[in-house]
């Protein structure tokens, strides 16, 4: 709507305008009552009319620059509809419409009028929005029809999908996980009630087989977590969490079934088997302590310093210890894990649960055979360590060595099967005993199921220092019993021929 311009009358014109109307004839005074005229009222009315006309003139003048501004910049850089409002700040000019009783705002939105006028103004919040992966809850098995955002990175699971396929070769599976498919299935079925997780609105749960596979492959290869992540298509932190969860489940579920001190019937069988091999009666187990390398801890560094390994490897070494007792098949029946590497074998033995069991009288008529790093006690049988040994003592040491080698060979197979024990691990020191305990349990399962080891995996040296304790004999009765056993071996043709 446009407002046409016109010239406003001045005071003189207004006066002449009203002079055109003559006074009413006096003759009419008799017929019509004449209203008295108030001059001051007429003057005020004229002023109000004049003020209204001046106000309209000022509004017209204020409209003209805005119209010129609109005509000058409309369509700058665009070829859109000239009636389209311009974006930007929105100054408005209110005009009367054609009926004169409503208001119509005119909006000036700035440059770039080629955009859709109905498009909402962009805000910082809209600009901060980033693309996300969305999934419907029906796909996640919830069936609620709601949609949730998933912040999940896509990773390739090609290797695991191939290994998990039923047609994957048995030998390659054994090489990857150090056990057969049947043994792997046994472990999964035992851990299923504890390890299984439920699907959520955010993501699908990782299957039990994949959870167990991540843990076993990590223990078997000792590879860093970033490589485990690439193999299984999972995040690094997820893999680390899975390893600890599965190891904890193995400790809580499988250890009571597969790593326990033998009962009376089983112990009788173990004694008979060891006597057939060595001729020494009442041998209930063979004991050995090994060291597992670790990264230098942040606290008590000196306690974990391994002097013998440092001298042998010509570099600073830190370790924790694993003391194990095995039966005639190399299956662990007792373990003591986690004591610092600077602690000698006899001190570790005193800290073990096995030592407490013996003090309670639960190891009567049972010998646990160890090397020269342990003291001779009522239930611990060790070789002679003094110089100038007799023939009988040499023969005894040879037979004790045969029994003690059963434990050493078991530790050797343990480290060969689970390569993580041969190198410094990324696991925190407080979590390491659980991981090492899981390795011992899995070792027992493999040994019980006669899982063989590839000969190429046995190409490493097992070096553990044997420090003769200051007090090598703690029981006079045990010393006499050892001498009797030595004479028994010599007179019953159990003496070795190594010195002949």
UniProtKB/TrEMBL annotation:
Q: Please indicate if the UniProt record lists tRNA-binding as a keyword.
A: no
Q: Which GO terms describe its molecular function?
A: hydrolase activity; metal ion binding; nuclease activity
InterPro entries named among the record's database cross-references: HARBI1-like, HARBI1_dom
Its keywords, alphabetically, are: Hydrolase, Metal-binding, Nuclease, Nucleus
Q: What domain of life does the UniProt record list for this protein's source?
A: Eukaryota
Which residues belong to any copy of the DDE Tnp4 domain? 288-444
Q: Where in the cell is it found?
A: Nucleus
Q: Which cofactor does it need?
A: a divalent metal cation
Q: Where is this region: Disordered?
A: 25-46, 97-147
- Residue spans making up a coiled coil are none
Q: Name one Pfam family in it.
A: DDE_Tnp_4
Please provide, in alphabetical order, the Gene Ontology terms of the cellular component aspect for this entry.
Answer: nucleus
Its primary localisation, in coarse terms, equals nucleus
PANTHER family in UniProt: PROTEIN ALP1-LIKE (PTHR22930:SF199), PTHR22930
- Provide the family line: Belongs to the HARBI1 family.
User: What protein name does the entry list?
Assistant: Nuclease
């Amino acid at each position: 709507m446009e407002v046409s311009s016109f010239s406003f009358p001045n005071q003189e014109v207004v006066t002449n305008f009203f002079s055109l109307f003559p006074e009413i004839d006096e003759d009419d005074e008799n017929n019509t009552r004449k209203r008295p005229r108030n001059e001051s009222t007429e003057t005020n009315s004229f002023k109000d009319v004049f003020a209204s006309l001046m106000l309209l003139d000022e509004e017209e003048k204020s409209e003209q620059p805005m119209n010129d501004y609109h005509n000058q910049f409309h369509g700058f850089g665009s070829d859109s509809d000239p009636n389209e409002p311009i974006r930007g700040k929105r100054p408005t000019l209110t005009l009367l419409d054609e009926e004169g009783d409503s208001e119509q705002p005119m909006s000036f939105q700035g440059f770039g009028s080629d955009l859709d006028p109905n498009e909402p103004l962009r805000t910082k919040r809209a600009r901060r929005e980033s693309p996300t992966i969305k999934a419907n809850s029906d796909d996640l098995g919830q069936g609620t029809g709601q949609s949730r955002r998933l912040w999940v990175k896509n990773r390739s699971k090609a290797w695991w999908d191939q290994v998990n396929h039923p047609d994957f070769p048995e030998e390659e599976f054994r090489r990857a996980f150090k056990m057969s498919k049947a043994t792997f299935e046994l472990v999964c079925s035992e851990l299923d009630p504890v390890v299984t997780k439920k699907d959520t609105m955010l993501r699908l749960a990782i299957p039990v087989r994949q959870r167990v596979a991540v843990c076993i492959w990590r223990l078997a290869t000792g590879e860093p977590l970033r490589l485990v992540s690439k193999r299984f298509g999972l995040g690094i932190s997820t893999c680390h969490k899975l390893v600890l969860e599965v190891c904890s489940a193995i400790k809580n579920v499988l250890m009571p079934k597969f790593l326990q001190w033998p009962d009376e019937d089983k112990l009788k069988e173990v004694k008979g088997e060891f006597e057939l091999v060595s001729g020494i009666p009442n041998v209930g187990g063979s004991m050995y302590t090994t060291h597992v390398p670790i990264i230098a801890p942040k606290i008590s560094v000196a306690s974990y310093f391994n002097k013998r390994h440092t001298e042998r490897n010509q570099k600073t070494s830190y370790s924790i210890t694993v003391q194990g007792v095995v039966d005639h098949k190399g299956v662990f029946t007792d373990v003591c894990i986690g004591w610092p590497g600077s602690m000698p074998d006899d001190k570790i033995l005193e800290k073990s649960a096995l030592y407490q069991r013996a003090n309670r009288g639960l190891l009567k008529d049972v010998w646990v055979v160890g090397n020269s790093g342990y003291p001779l006690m009522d239930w611990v049988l060790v070789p002679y360590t003094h110089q100038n040994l007799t023939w009988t003592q040499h023969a005894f040491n040879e037979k004790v060595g045969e029994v003690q080698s059963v434990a050493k060979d078991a530790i050797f197979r343990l480290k060969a099967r689970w390569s993580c024990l041969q190198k410094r691990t990324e696991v925190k020191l407080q979590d390491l005993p659980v991981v090492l305990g899981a390795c011992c349990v899995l070792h027992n399962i493999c040994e019980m199921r006669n899982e063989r080891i590839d000969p190429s995996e046995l190409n490493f040296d097992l070096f553990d220092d044997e420090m003769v304790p200051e007090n090598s004999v703690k029981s006079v009765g045990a010393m006499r019993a050892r001498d009797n056993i030595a004479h028994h071996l010599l007179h019953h043709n159990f003496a070795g021929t190594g010195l002949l």
